[in-house]
Write a structure and sequence with these properties.
single chain, 459 residues, alpha/beta, Rossmann fold, 10-stranded mixed sheet, 7-stranded parallel sheet, 25 strands, 27% strand, elongated
């Protein structure tokens, strides 16, 4: 499978713009492209999905394992011509400052994929050689195949950059993109807004492709991607249960709720679950004969008024919970299950009200990072002592303690990867479980079977 990793020396070098431009250019040639994003991000993948016309999959070396990544890569690239993998942060940045765990470099090694390194060269010339030399020598197992000099100046500037690498016998400059040549992508919080055809129309993709084809050697990039060796893939053992009851799981999916790892949803489908999407924004009732609900993350605060107005859906979810049927909610889904959302302006909108607290939007980041989760009680995801991994990224908080009335319990013991501190979370009552954590089920595959069993059990 032809494949290439788009990496940067740091965040903000233009990895996403270059990846989108490359995808658009390849599609112009009639090629089918499968995209991937290193790390737990939900925002960049939405752009890569729109550009390629196929779901973008996260590849995370900390939350999952090498065998899982290889099997996922193999399964999702069977019917395409090329894979484009966008990195996370800088090339060597990941879950640990002392190792490559969770980094773009680790993923490039796992996939034996050549790296296209994007460097912001504004205000530098020969220093580019020092930076590239450092990256090349820092990890000799990596193949840095070429450099894209972003935010460059004149043709003379490009010549100097090219000479500086050539004299030092370093990977070549494959192109130099002038400052402000790429169209600006809209931004929100720490990253991009979630993409859809409205904010990433074909015109922008065409403009990105035009810039790339004018300033970068597309043919050379394609040759590099095709120079890869075959990968040996051993598929994972699945916990298949012949004759297991087929269950239907409602998945909240609209502009307010769409932060899901696609392979999490794939895993449910591969195990025989019927996934039925519904919209808390527009639908007045839940689909019929559901055995469970999955409320993912997203931007409920951006659509709080519409969600509050749809009281029929709120009541349908309350009735679903009253029957003892499983409801699992992450981040934005948790906010939707609270009494309501208070916006930055202080205006309040009522939500479902299962979780007896209000959520409040902040004008600052509340939490961003990896977490290790240990179950302190039996839950939808397994028995006490089960360990999983996940990620948090949110600008909201709960205004009160959900445990204060004694009706809810906390079933997660969280260990923050960066600070090494612990917290209590994962709010559970009956078969309702809500958390700010986005779990990656591949961190503990047996939990998926446990969740399906809960959905298949009679209340």
């Amino acid at each position: 499978m032809p494949r290439i990793v788009i990496a940067g020396t740091q965040s903000g070098t233009g990895k996403t713009s270059l990846a989108l431009a490359l995808i658009a250019s390849l599609k112009r040639r009639g090629l089918q492209i499968q995209t991937f994003k290193v790390g737990p991000d939900f925002l960049d993948p939405s752009y890569l999905t729109v550009a390629s016309g196929r779901p973008c999959y996260n590849l995370d070396g900390w939350m999952t394992r090498r065998e899982y990544v290889l099997e996922l890569f193999h399964r999702t690239t069977k019917d395409v011509d090329m894979a484009v993998i966008e990195g996370v942060m800088g090339l060597f940045d990941g879950a640990d400052p002392a190792t490559s765990e969770g980094s773009t470099a680790e993923m490039a090694r796992w996939l034996d994929a050549p790296v296209l390194l994007v460097v912001n060269v504004h205000g530098m010339a020969r220093s580019l050689a020092a930076i590239v030399k450092g990256c090349v020598e820092f990890d000799r197992d990596l193949r840095i195949a070429g450099i894209v000099a972003n935010h460059s100046g004149s043709d003379h500037h490009k010549d100097w950059l090219t000479q500086s690498l050539g004299v030092a016998s370093l990977p070549p400059v494959l192109g130099a993109i002038p400052r402000r040549a790429f169209p600006t992508l809209p931004s929100r919080h720490l990253g991009l807004v979630t993409a859809d055809p409205q904010n990433l129309p074909p015109g922008i993709l065409e403009e990105l492709a035009d810039v790339l084809e004018k300033h970068v050697s597309l043919e050379t990039i394609m040759q590099i991607a095709r120079s890869t060796s075959p990968l040996f893939v051993q598929g994972p053992a699945r916990e298949e249960k012949p004759g297991q009851k087929r269950v239907s799981i409602g998945v909240a999916y609209d502009r307010a709720f769409h932060f899901y790892y696609p392979d999490n949803l794939d895993e449910l489908a591969l195990r025989g679950c019927d996934l039925i999407r519904f919209s808390p924004l527009k639908d007045r009732e839940l689909p019929e004969d559901l055995n469970g609900l999955y409320l993912g993350g997203g931007y409920p605060e951006e659509y709080a008024e519409a969600l509050a107005d749809n009281q029929d859906m709120q009541e349908a979810i309350r009735q679903f919970a009253s029957k003892g049927l499983p409801i699992y909610a992450e981040c934005g889904g948790l906010m939707y299950l609270t009494r309501g959302i208070e916006t930055i302006s202080g205006k309040r909108y009522s939500m479902v009200g299962l979780l007896p607290v209000w959520s409040k939007m902040l004008n600052r980041l509340k939490f961003l990072g990896y977490l290790e989760i240990t179950l302190t009680a039996n839950s939808l995801w397994g028995v006490r002592g089960t360990e999983l991994r996940g990620h948090e990224f949110h600008y909201s908080e709960l205004m009160e303690d959900p445990l204060r009335n004694g009706l809810w319990t906390a079933v997660y013991k969280l260990r923050h990867r960066r600070s090494k501190t612990f917290a209590v979370e994962g709010f559970q009552r009956g078969h309702v479980l809500a958390s700010y954590v986005h779990l990656h089920w591949a961190s503990q595959p047996k939990t998926v079977g446990t969740f399906i069993d809960h959905c298949g059990a009679k209340p």
